[in-house]
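// run 5 | inverse folding | seed 20
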């Protein structure tokens, strides 16, 4: 069995589609079908059955996928990294993720990639769009502040950050002196960047507190707007630690202390395995991983 035929099988298995696998591999659909037919002949059993929506794996396909596991991806990553060390890396790398994290945390780490001759393009995207663009190839690498469940993508934890409830020093002091923190929070304007209150909800759950029944007083388009408004003396919010460290040190913000330790938000580097066949993507991924490892030591 050739490595290329096994790679074709993995892509068809992941996408449940001959046409989608062909796009990912930059092959023709007949070429993909020929690879699958060759594997089926070698194994002596059918691997896929055609359906109205694509193809459905047989038990033999599930067994082969389980036997391969991540070994094929690991081999390709090693080969791509080796090619990257000797290849011309010019061209643009497309990085996608939450806009505040990209601008505030990732951007200072990109000097090495830029010095290697790559161009960098940052794109803002949230859950759903991030996965879609990685899978359709319009983005090379993603950074997600949530668990990516799509099995067609791989991820690696790169950062853990506390989620801190913050307000201006005057408001934070009032909250911290309150006999009943729940009541104090309910009476204070709340600032968030989503109707779903994801960061605030995580912090409240960790403290054993409930969300206020009142609608958010302010829904900003990004974390910058929340930080700016809270520092001006209006309301309270919850921010990742990296996003408020400077304001805390400068006395523009102060921490609202809950009864429990603050929760952590986990950030992951995300990629489609097929993207690492490109030496530029493989090199950028390794550079970003090294930068995050260095920042955590």
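// decoded
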């Amino acid at each position: 069995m050739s490595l290329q035929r096994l790679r074709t099988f993995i892509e068809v298995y992941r996408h449940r589609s001959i046409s989608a696998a062909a796009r990912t591999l930059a092959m023709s659909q007949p070429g993909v079908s020929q690879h699958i037919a060759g594997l089926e002949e070698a194994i002596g059993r059918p691997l896929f059955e055609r359906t109205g929506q694509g193809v459905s794996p047989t038990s033999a396909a599930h067994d082969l996928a389980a036997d391969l596991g991540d070994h094929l991806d690991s081999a390709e990553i090693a080969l791509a990294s080796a090619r990257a060390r000797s290849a011309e890396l010019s061209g643009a790398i497309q990085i996608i993720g939450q806009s505040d994290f990209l601008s505030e945390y990732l951007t200072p780490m990109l000097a090495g990639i830029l010095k290697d001759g790559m161009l960098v393009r940052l794109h803002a995207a949230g859950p759903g769009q991030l996965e879609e663009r990685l899978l359709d190839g319009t983005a090379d690498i993603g950074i997600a502040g949530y668990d990516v469940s799509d099995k067609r993508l791989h991820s690696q934890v790169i950062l853990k950050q506390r989620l801190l409830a913050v307000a201006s020093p005057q408001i934070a002091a009032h909250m911290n002196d309150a006999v009943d923190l729940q009541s104090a929070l309910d009476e204070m304007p709340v600032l968030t960047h989503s109707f779903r209150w994801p960061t605030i909800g995580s912090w409240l759950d960790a403290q054993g507190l409930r969300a206020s029944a009142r609608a958010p007083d302010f829904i900003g388009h990004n974390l910058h707007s929340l930080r700016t408004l809270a520092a001006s003396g209006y309301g309270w919010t919850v921010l990742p630690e990296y996003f408020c460290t400077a304001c805390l040190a400068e006395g523009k913000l102060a921490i609202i202390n809950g009864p429990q330790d603050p929760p952590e938000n986990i950030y992951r580097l995300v990629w489609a395995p097929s993207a690492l066949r490109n030496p530029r993507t493989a090199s950028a991924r390794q550079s970003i991983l090294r930068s995050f490892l260095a920042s955590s030591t």
